[in-house]
Amino acid sequence: MERAFFATRWIAAPLYFGLTIGLLLVAFKFFQQLLGLVLKATGLDFDDVFVGVLDLIDLVLLANLLLIVMFSGYENFVSRLDIRQHEDYPSWIGHVTFGDIKIKLMASIVAMSAIHVLADFIRVDDTSTRALEWSVGIHLAFVVSGVLMAVMDRIMEGSPDTHHADPQPDAAQHKEKHDA
Hints:
- The protein is mostly helical.
- It has helices at 2-7, 13-40, 46-77, 98-122, 129-158, 171-179.
- Helix 4 runs antiparallel to helix 5.
- The two termini are 38 Å apart.
């Protein structure tokens, strides 16, 4: 029964792989927006170029977020990736905990939200006061949520309940306990 229950984690594997389609869509939108920006570049003022580049950065942040969730989620919840010997192996893979994923997710959302707030303020003449207020309010909600998540994660790191002892200590640990 426990083996079958443990094996259910593999149900998530296709979900993580499915995020590659999301990554492809983000890449498609990136190059679509980049091409549009390049084709219109001579007729754009600085603010339009600035907002266009911010949109590209937003898509790159989203792509990075997808990669973090795909790789670290798979490694944390499904199985280890057997690619550590690969020459392009990123050093962060395998070192991102579930708490790190939450913090990186929230930091990415805050960064993307900040980009949207900045774009709204660059286009302040075309943006209603109500829209600006909502934009800033939502951004502040994301910032506060991120800070609270980080604080909760820090509290949990210090909690003795989060550090589970190995149920089967190795022979050296066993010998140390009994010799004392």
